[in-house]
Amino acid sequence: MTTTAAPTSAVTNKELTYSDDGTTLVFNAGGQELARYTYRPGDDQYESPRPYFHPLRTLGGDEVTIARPWDHVWHKGLSWALPNVGKDNFWGGATYTRETEYANLDNNGAMNHEAFTGITESGGGITAVEALTWTSQDGKPVIGEKRRFNIRLLDVPSAAEEGHAAWAILFETEMTNISPDTIEIGSPTTEGRNNAGYGGLFWRGPRSFTGGEFRSSNGTGADEFMGTRSPWIAFTGQHDVTCRFSSIMFVEDSTNPGAPNKWFARSSMFACLGSAPFFSEVVPLKEGQPLTYRYAVVISDGKADGDTADRLAEAAKAALESWK
Question: Structure pTM?
């Protein structure tokens, strides 16, 4: 019989700190590394270079992301990535269009870090404000982005005592069109491929999480959660070696355009979850009309089941509301 060990490296000193080596921000709690945010990646152009979070770890020390998996090397832990941005691909890999289906089109753009305009520490965690310029493969400016993210420990009543210590990434992007024309943002599904509406804030989980369980206000399950709508969705997987469970939860801000939007969710092929505001409808990015999307991503020890999932979701919603 398989037994599940309790976390042995849970953080007791909850002070959050960060460091910056010129390419990556590293976030720690009580001396334990929680997250790395690589903002100057050295990736090949085919992978649509962009900032990403990896690795992400629970407070108990378990890693819940994978980057550059052999099947999709452009999957990068947790990142904001969009595959069909007008003629450009800011996701990586081949592009799906009605005319070509999947093809390598020499259109892989890059999200280029310009500067951190502020990194502040407070009782609400650590907030970084970042300026980025999205450029096409031939170097032309396409989108100007103002990005904010916040790393914080979550106050989840009763959860810590039950092995569900949690922290969160609050993420906000404001995208502004700096190209000559209106940009239509879509997905392979808007181009005709069924149930392939990926594009947004996207997470790729460890190999051992394959076959894990989704939970939302719609209930529990697996691949049938693809394309569903709900204010929040969680995924629970099990780790090799320790045999412990960890969970990741996405909570969408209710002010997002189209909220609640669809989720991109897979369990049987590999573990992945993403916000998908362009899943089945093209959204125009017009000059002078920026698009803003906000999310909370919760990383938790243990299973996100029953009341625990509700508590985590409520804590994340409160954090988003307070982080304006």
Answer: 0.94
